[in-house]
Amino acid sequence: MKFISSLLLTALLSYAACLFLPWWSIALAAFLVAFFISQKIGWAFLSGFLAIFILWFALSQYISSKNEDILAHKVSQIILQTDNPFMLMLVTGLVGGIVAGFAAAAGASLQMKKIRNSV
Amino acid sequence: MRLISFLISSILTMGLIILLNTKMVLPAPLGKLLAPQSGLWQNADDANEDFSGDFNFPQLKGKASVYLDERLVPHIFAEQENDAYFIQGYLHAKFRLWQMDLQTRAAAGEVSEVIGEKGLAHDREFRRLGMVYGAENALKEMEANPDTKASCDAYTAGVNAYIHSLTESTLPFEYKLMGFKPREWSNLRSALFLKYMSYDLASYETDFEMEHARSYFDSTDMNLLYPVFQDSADPIIPKGTLFPEPSIHPKAPAHVDSVYLKGDIDVIENEKPNPANGSNNWAVSGKKTKSGFPILCNDPHLGLNLPSLWYEIQISTPAFNAYGVSFPGAPGVIIGYNDSCAFGFTNGGRDVRDYYEITFKDNSRQEYWFNNEWKKTTFRIEEIKIAGKPVFYDTVAYTIFGPVMYDKSFAGKKDSSKKNYAVRWKAHDASNELLIFYKLNRAKNYEDYKDACMNLEVPGQNVAFACKNGDIAIRTQGAWPAKWTGQGDFIMPGQDSSYMWQGIIPQTEVPYQYNPERGFISSANQRPVQNNYPYYLGRNYPSSRGIIINRLLSSMEQITPQDMMQMQNNNYNVFAETVMPVLLKNIDATALTGKDQEYLNILRNWDLRNDADSKGATVFFIFWNQFKTAVFGDEFAKVPNGVLSPQESTLEEAILRDSTYKFIDNINTPQKETLSDITTQAFLAAGKELRTIEIAKELPWALYKGTEIDHLTKVIPALNRLNLPIGGGDHIINATKKNHGPSWRMVVSLTPQTEAYGVYPGGQSGNPGSKYYDNFINQWVAGKYYSLWMMTKEEVNDKRIKWTMHFSPKKA
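^ Those are the sequences you sent over. The predicted structure of the assembly is below.
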C-alpha cells in the first residue's frame, strides 16, 4: 500500500513540480515522498524509480503518438545512433527513473520516523 | 548506517543530476533533453496542432487576422500597414526563429559564442570583411527612410514579441540541442541578414587565386585560361543592342601590367560563397502566351538547406497586397507578385570586391603609405565572444580602401601574412536594399518597377518584371563600379589612388530591356551584354543556361503556365550538346575494350538529358571531369596554393576552335599529345571510375549525384533529407546539384485573375519535429508545383483555410 501510494504521489508531485521547476525537481519530489512515507530503502528506491520511469515513459509515449513519432525517429538517431522511437522512450524513462530512485533512497535514509526516534 | 546510506544516495543523486544536466561528462545533457515536460519531446508538435487563437499586443495599432491554409502559408490581413510587418516578424519567429538567429550570427561573426572556438576563423574573417561595419552603414540608410524604418521597427517588435513569449519548454528544438538561448532581435540584425545575402551573392572574387595562377603562367597563358571575353555567351541584352555614351571613362593606370605586385602571397581565404549561386528568370509577353497576358518565371539557385531560406507569405493591407516568398529576417515579400505585376531576380555576378596591398609604417599599423605620405588608419576593435573561453579581441585597421582583412595576425587558412591586404567591397557603402522590396510589393506599372529598382545597390541583380497591362522588362540593376578592363581581377597596389575605383556606373546607365521585339526577356547569370557595352564586366559568367533558355523561349508560342513549369524542370544539357561531337570524334574506339566499350555506347546513345535515371549523364559527367584533368591537371599541379578552375566555357570554346590548344599536351611526357590522345586517355580513366560507381549501383544520374537537403548545422544527418531522386545539374535549367539548386520555383501568369504556381524544397515550419518541416520536398523533387492562392477578404470561409489567428492591440 505504502509502495503504491509512494509511487503515485511521487509521480503526481513530479509532474506538478516540472510545470514550474527544472526537470531535476523530480529528485526533490522523490526525496520528499520517501522522507514522509516510510519504506525500506530498497522499496523506496524502487517506488521512486518506477514512478518517474512510468511517468516519463508514458508522457513521451503520449506526446510522440500525437506527433506520429516524427521527432522521436530523428532524436533517437541523434542520441542513440539508431532509428528507434520506442528505445528513446525507454531511455527517457530510465534517465528520469534512476535520478528519482536514488533521491528516494536518500529520502528514505533520513526518514521522518527515524529522526523523531533518534531525537 | 542510515547516515552512510543517506550520504551515498544523496551524492549519487546529485552526481547524476550534474551528469544529466550538463555536458561535463556526457556529450549531451540527457536529462535536460529528454525530460518530457521541458526537453526535446516538447518540440514534437501535435500532428493535428491547432494554430488558431487570439493574440493581443499593445504594439499593434489596429486589428489584423492571419488565415493559415492547409500548407501552413499565412495570409495576413491587417488594417494598418505596419501591423502586417509586426505579424510577419512574429510569424517568422514562431516558425523560423533559430534559423534567423543563427544566420544573423553567422553574418555578424558571432558563431563562436554558441559553438566555441571552432567558429573563430569564420567569425574573424566575417568581421574583418566588414560585415558588421557594412550592416551598420546600411542600417543608417534604412532608418533614414521613414517607410523602411517603420516597417523594420514593426518587424523587429514582432520578432521580439514572440521571443519574449518563449519558455524553457517552448524554446525551438535546436536551441535545446545546442544549448543556447535566442538573442533579442533588432533592426541591425535585419540589416545583417541582408548583408549576408550580399555576401552570398556579391562577394565572390578570385583575386588571390588569379594571383597564384599568375605567379606561374605568363600573360599569354593567362588569357588562354581566363579570357576576358567569352564568344559563346548569349547575353541577357541581345547582341546588337546599342548603348548610350558612358558618363564615366575609367582610365587604367600607366604600366598596369608591369607594376602588378610580385612575390609570395600567404593568404588563402577561409570561406568563399558558392560561385554557383545564380538563378534563372524570364518573362514572356502576351503575344507569345495562350492567354494573351504575360507570364513571369523565376527560380533562384542557392544552397539548399532545412529550414529553407524562404518562407511563403501573403501580406494584405489597404496600401498593398503581395504574395510570394520572404526572408525570415526581413520584412516584406522578396520574390513574388501583387495585384498588378510580378517580379523575380537572378544574380548579377559582377565583381564588386577587390583587394589592395597596403604598406604599414610599422608593426603598430597606425599609419600606411598612401599618395606619398603616411596616412592614419582607424581601428575597429571586434569583440568576439567564445563559448567556454575568454573574449577574443581582434583589432582591425581601416584604410581609405576599407578594412585590412588579411595581415600578420590573420591570413584565412594560413597562419600569418607578411603582406597586408585591404578589402574594398561595395557592400561596405551605405544603401537601403529594403526599399526595392518595399516598392516592388506596391508597384503598379513599369515606372514603379523602374523606380523601385533604382534603390538596389548590392547585391546587384537582373530584375525581371511583368505586368497585367502587358509590359515585360528586365534591368541588370546594382551599384557597379565603373572599371577599366581587367581592374580588380588581381590584387591591386594600394600605395596611391591610381588603382582605386573611379566611379560607380549611374543607375540610369545599366543595361535593360523594356518590351523587346522578341517577346521575352531572360537572364541566367550569363554575361549581361556584348563587348560594345562601354564598361568592363569581369570574367566569371556561366553561359549554358542562358543559351538553352533563349533557344526554347524563341521557339515557343501559345505558352501556358504548364509549359513554363516544364521548362523550369528541363534537364537538357546544352553544354554536352556542344562538346559531345568533338569528344566522341576524338575517342579512339579501337583502344577500348569490354566495359569501356559499353560506357562508350551509353554515351553515344545518350539523349543529352540529365534525367534522374540517365546513365549517359553520369558517364558524360565523369568523362568531362577526367578530360578537364587530362588537359589542365599537369600544369595546375605546379601552381602554388592551388588554382582556379577555368570556366567550363573556356575549355569548350578552346577545343571547338583549336584542336592544338596549348594545354592539351601533357607536359610530363616527352612526346606531344594530341586532342585524340588525351580524350582517349580521359575516357579510359573515366571507365575505371565508372566501374566503381557501377559496382556501387550508382550509375543512374540521380543516384550518383545524390541530391540532399541538409539541416543548416550540416552535422546532424538525422535532420537531413538524403538521396533525392531528382535530375538536373550544372549547365542545365533545372540546376539541381548535390546540395544546391532551385530554392524556389515560381510561375506567375498575369491574367486578369492571376494564376500562379510555386514550390520550394522545404516546409513552412523550421521545427524538425513538425510535419510541416519538409513536406514540400517530394513535390519539388517531382517537378510539381502548388497553386499559389492570393486570398481575398471575401474568401475567409474557403475550405483551404485551416486556422485563424486574430491579432488586436489589447485585451478585449
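Chain B has 23 helices and 29 strands. Chain B touches chain A at residues 2-3, 5-6, 9-10, 12-13, 16-17, 20-21, 28, 30-48, 168, 173, 177, 716-719, 768-771, 773 (CB under 8 Å).

Shout if you want it in another format.
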